[in-house]
Design brief:
single chain; 574 residues; alpha/beta; Rossmann fold; 7-stranded mixed sheet; two-stranded antiparallel sheet; 28 helices; 9 strands; RNA-binding; vWA_Ro60; metal-binding; cytoplasm
Length: 574
């Protein structure tokens, strides 16, 4: 594999090996710098101007089919990334490491358009400052100041007012810090008033008092004319939002939400216990936020076991099936929240949840509201149709053992392996035209078909899979490939899902050789995806870990897992 392909893999997986683990991964600076070493080598060669033979030889060994900045633009615009951290790090790395002005300028040119949210801006600045060297210093250079200024200037005055009032800081950076660091000055007076107010000013500059010693009245009058006297509508909006965040009365909060369409982020935390405030917010919340709101509402004891006006109103907004479709939420997300709500919990993390449970012991003695659970279940089944059809030919093989109805998924303690099988396969099966689902048996050379139907809902599919489960299975990772070869079946994607890869493949053998043989025989470009649900380590061993193509190993199951699989089977990365 060339260096460009490795960089693209890093952007999607966070590593240069064909392995993805589902967990909240803190960003690894050392790993990023190691993978981006070829970019540093080219920068050092450019700085040396070919005078150092060793540096020149190392630079000649670097193979980039595409410039890194062009790669970042293409990948971020594709919308197939799980997170933007790696892309932002590469941009900051190039801006700090490269010595050629044109290369730095290319980064600063794309930053205003690529970065969409404040959170990404804060993270980019964090990376940029962390990578600063002693020679370069930690200040913003001219190019960085221009890029940040353009980012703020691309927003309208009203948009600036909203994001400055609602967005919180990230990585110890906030809008105030960046505005002051970059010395931002915009031509639009309304925008500048908002920025000034956000940074601690009044939003409108007050006329300077004339000094006693000043006798030139005409000069003083000219100075007063230059000072803005009228507050813009954007500034008034910003000041209203800041005032709203200090409201203590639920009635006033409801009026503000209805009159000015204020979002949940602006509501003071002391009003989270007020049911009328939530009823005012429901029509204005995105569907993802509505689903997650169940966990907040149960903590404040607003969703009781018996129906109340609030639970009925919440059930109605959950039942908006058009919103489920428009949100494109994967059913795994709804299932996670539904299970947390059903178990009267809030966090998937065991440590966080133990603290939460100790602080909310009364929740354990209550039950979930039946109306809300019914709407959750309806939304879960509707979201099964949110999967975007790829048109590829799939052969999915499951390791169905009866014990897996109780075995938990890594990183998702409320999801069984059986539920993960259904949540990963049924949405694909409902949308794809060419998909076959098989299961392993107690004979390693035999596969049997799992006859799911597209009309099945979640629980019926779970029961169907449980009825097909065996007490014991013998798994051979290459068996699906051999099955396709024997039946002369053209396949674009092989997906094998097991509970523990090390259990079924103790020798850690990779199916890459069998896959290459199948592709050569059938003249295909098939890819092989292995999902190990309960493991937390990389188990497949390839002869060359970095240069292996065609096989991807995933660990755990979350709403990110289908997105990674989708990007891989569409050949967005290797």
């Amino acid at each position: 594999m060339n260096n460009s392909d490795l960089i693209v893999r890093y952007l999607y997986l966070g590593t240069d090996q064909p392995f993805y683990i589902q967990k909240n991964r803190p960003f690894d600076f050392d790993e990023g710098c190691r993978i981006l070493a070829p970019i540093r080598t080219l920068a050092e060669a450019a700085a040396a101007n070919g005078d150092d033979p060793a540096v020149r030889k190392a630079a000649e060994a670097v193979s980039l089919k595409e410039q890194p900045v062009d790669i970042i633009v293409r990948v971020m615009n594709s919308g197939s990334l799980v997170r933007n951290d790696e892309c932002l790090f590469v941009l900051a790395f190039i801006a700090r490491i490269c010595t050629k002005p044109e290369e730095k300028h290319k980064v600063y040119e794309v930053v205003p358009t690529l970065i969409k949210e404040s959170k990404d801006l804060f993270q980019f600045v964090h990376f940029y400052q962390t990578l600063a060297t002693k020679s370069a210093g930690k200040g913003f250079g001219h190019g960085m100041k221009v890029a940040v200024t353009k980012w703020y200037d691309k927003h309208s005055a009203e948009e600036l007012a909203k994001l400055l009032a609602t967005d919180r800081g990230w990585h110890e950076w906030g809008h105030k810090d960046i505005i002051r660091m970059a010395h931002i000055k915009l031509a639009d007076e309304a925008k500048m008033q908002v920025l000034d107010a956000a940074c601690g000013g009044k939003g409108v500059k007050r006329p300077a008092k004339a000094k006693k010693s000043e006798t030139n009245d005409e000069k003083a009058n000219d100075d007063l004319k230059d000072e803005p006297q009228v507050k813009s509508e954007a500034l008034n909006m910003f000041l209203r939002m800041k005032e709203f965040k200090r409201v203590n009365d639920a009635a006033h909060a409801c009026d503000g939400i209805k009159n000015y369409q204020y979002s949940f982020e602006l509501v003071p935390s002391q009003l989270y216990r007020a049911a009328p405030v939530w009823e005012s917010l429901f029509p204005r919340m995105s569907y993802r936020d509505l689903v997650h709101a169940a966990l907040v509402l149960q903590d404040y004891k607003l969703l009781k076991e018996t129906d109340t006006p609030l639970s009925v109103a919440y059930g109605k907004v959950l039942n908006r099936m058009t919103s489920v479709t428009e949100s494109k939420i994967h059913p795994i997300f709804i299932y996670q929240v539904m299970r947390l709500y059903e178990e009267r919990q809030r966090y998937l993390n065991a440590v966080k949840e133990s603290i939460h449970t100790n602080n909310n012991l009364a929740l354990k003695n209550s039950k979930a509201n039946p109306t809300v659970m019914k709407q959750f279940y309806a939304a879960l089944n509707q979201s099964m149709l949110n999967y975007q059809r790829t048109g590829l030919r799939y052969l999915v093989t499951l390791d169905l053992r009866s014990k897996q109805s109780k075995k938990r998924v890594f990183g998702n303690r409320l999801m069984s392996c059986q539920a993960a099988y259904v949540l990963l396969t049924l949405p694909m099966f409902k949308r794809e035209s060419h998909m076959k689902i098989l299961s392993f048996t107690d004979h390693p050379e035999e596969l049997v078909e799992v006859d799911l139907t597209r009309e099945m809902d979640f629980f019926k599919a779970c029961d169907h899979i449980q009825n097909h489960a065996s007490k014991k299975t013998k798994v051979k990772l290459t068996q699906p490939i051999e099955y396709a070869t024997e039946n002369k079946m053209p396949v674009d994607v092989f997906i094998t899902i097991v509970d523990s890869l090390i259990r079924v493949n103790p020798k850690r053998q990779s199916p890459v050789l069998s896959l290459n043989s199948y592709n050569h025989t059938m003249k295909q470009k098939a890819r092989y995806v292995v999902v190990s649900l309960s493991r937390h380590q990389q188990d497949l061993h390839h002869f060359n870990m970095k240069n292996t193509k065609g096989v991807l190993e995933l660990v755990g199951c979350s709403q990110e897992t289908p997105k990674v699989i989708d990007a891989y089977v569409k050949h967005h990365f290797t």
